[in-house]
Amino acid sequence: MSAQSAEQLLHLETLSETERKILLGALHCFIQQGYFNTRIPDIVAASGVSTGSIYHHFKDKQHLAEALITQLINGLDQAMAKLISQHETPMEQIHALIEWMLTLTDAEPELVSFILYARHREFLPHQPPLCTQQPFEKMRSLVVRARENGDLPPLDEMVLTAAVFGPTLRIMQAAVDGVLPRPAHTYSAALFATIERLSTASAEV
Amino acid sequence: MSAQSAEQLLHLETLSETERKILLGALHCFIQQGYFNTRIPDIVAASGVSTGSIYHHFKDKQHLAEALITQLINGLDQAMAKLISQHETPMEQIHALIEWMLTLTDAEPELVSFILYARHREFLPHQPPLCTQQPFEKMRSLVVRARENGDLPPLDEMVLTAAVFGPTLRIMQAAVDGVLPRPAHTYSAALFATIERLSTASAEV
DNA sequence: GTCTATATGTTGATAGAC
DNA sequence: GTCTATCAACATATAGAC
C-alpha cells in the first residue's frame, strides 16, 4: 500500500464541510506546534473558519482535540485493517505493516512524529494511552498468531511484540528526529533481517 | 547497579540550596503534569521557594526547564558511564545497561515516562532531540563495538541499535503506560533472549 | 450556521520592601 | 537573596448581529 496523506488517514466523510476544515486546520497546527502552542486564532487562520463557528461545532479546545485524536486513531485502524486483509499469513501481514509504517514515515514525518511522541494524556487526561488502542492491539494479535504458526519463537507476548515492532518504531523515531541518514523505508530489508533472526536462531540459547 | 531516584540522577552538587529546591520542585511538577500544565505557583508550592526568588535564579520558565533538562541528561550520561565502566565486554555492558533501564523504570516510572515521551522540543525549540544526545550515543557506540567483536551480526548500525535497545524501550513504554502485567525488570531474560537470537541465527537467511 | 467584537479569567513576569 | 503584592498581556470562550 502506498503512503497516505494526513487528510486521507482522517476519515472525514461523515462530517460537514466546516467540521472537516476545522479538524484539518487543527491537525496541521497541532502537528507543527503542538497542542499547547496552538492558539485558537491559529486554528482560525489554518482552517479559514471563524472563532464563533469553531465553538459552535466543538465545545472547547480540548473537545476539538479529542475528536481529532479519535478520528486519527480510527483512520489508522482502518488503514491497517485494509492492509492486513490484503495478505495471507501473519508474517506477510507483519512485513506489509512494517513497510507501510516506514513509507508513511517518509511521506508524513510530522504526522508520524505527532502520533509517536504525543503524550496525548498531557492534554487529554481521559484518553487511554495509544499503545492500548486498536492499532497496537492489531500489532500484538499479529505477533501472537505468527507465534502460533511457529513463525516466531515461543517468547513472552509483550516481549515478542516489542522485538518485532520495536526496532521499526525506533527507526521511525530516528527518522522524524532527522538523525537517519537515509529514508526510513530503505531500512526495511535490514529490519526484516532482524525479525528473521528471531525465528531461525539455534534453539540451544 | 541499583535503581536511582530522580534526585540522584540530577547531579546538583554544584548548585546552591535554593536552586536545588527549585529544580527538584519543577521536576516533580513537570513529571506529574507536564511543562505546559505546570504554573509558576505550582513550582512555588512544590519547591517552597517564592516566585521572586525563582525569577532571581532563572530568567524565565523556559530557561528553568532548559537547565533542568540539561542536568537530567548529564545525570543520565554520568550514571550510564559509571555503569559501563564496571563491565568488561560490550555485550556485558549492553546487558548491564538494559537491566538498569528496566530497574529504573520500575523505581521511577514517571521520571522514565518524562524522559521517553518528552517532546522537549515542543517547549524547548532549541534543544536537539534526545536521541542525538550522549545517552543514545552511548547505546550506539556499545552496539558498534559489540558488532566489531563479532557478538552482533554485520547489519546496519542504526538498525542494529534499534534491534538491541528498541524492544527494551518498548517494554519500558508499556510499563509506564500501565499495560505491562509484571514489573519491567522481570522481562529482562526474555529481552536478552531476543538479542541472543540476533547473533546466533543461522547465516543463510 | 457563520461571523465580529468583546469580556473574563489566568498567567508569566516585575516592582520594590526587607 | 528572598519575599509579597501587583501588573500587563494574552488566550479562551461568549454575546449577539446577520
From TrEMBL, chains A, B:
Domain named HTH tetR-type: residues: 16-76
Protein source organism: Sulfurivirga caldicuralii
Pfam families, per database record: TetR_N (PF00440)
Database matches in SUPFAM superfamilies: Homeodomain-like, Tetracyclin repressor-like, C-terminal domain
Top-rank taxon: Bacteria
Coiled-coil blocks: none
Keywords noted in UniProt: DNA-binding, Transcription, Transcription regulation
Protein's recorded name: Transcriptional regulator, TetR family
Ranges of the DNA-binding region feature: 39-58
Segments traversing the membrane: none
GO molecular function: DNA-binding transcription factor activity; transcription cis-regulatory region binding
Record flagged with keyword S-adenosyl-L-methionine: no
InterPro entries recorded: Homeodomain-like_sf, HTH-type_TetR-like_transc_reg, HTH_TetR, Tet_transcr_reg_TetR-rel_C_sf
Keyword Repressor on entry: no
